[in-house]
Amino acid sequence: MSLGLGIVLFAIGAVLAFALNLAVDWINLQMVGYILMAAGAVVIILGIILMARRRSSVSTSRTTVDPATGDRVTRNETSRPDDTTTV
């Protein structure tokens, strides 16, 4: 969703900055377009960084022998940096 929002902000900003030839006394539409383009670029970069963080994961596997029954017990743990639960 953040990538889509960044692209939309950048596109609206580009239209305001480059394609729209309208003079309004109380606001500079070209400057608003540049601000929206900068905000869109920041949102795109943050979205890419957050997607890269979300995909990394850590997996741990342990095998022990239960002293009471002599059975082999395997425990698997999987965690992601943004996920605090352990499976």
TrEMBL record:
Region annotated Disordered, chain positions: 55-87
Keyword presence, Nucleus: no
Transmembrane intervals: 29-52
Biased composition (Low complexity): 55-65
Keyword list, A-Z: Membrane, Transmembrane, Transmembrane helix
Source domain of life: Bacteria
All copies of domain DUF6458, residue ranges: 1-65
Chain intervals with Basic and acidic residues compositional bias: 72-87
Name of the molecule in the record: DUF6458 domain-containing protein
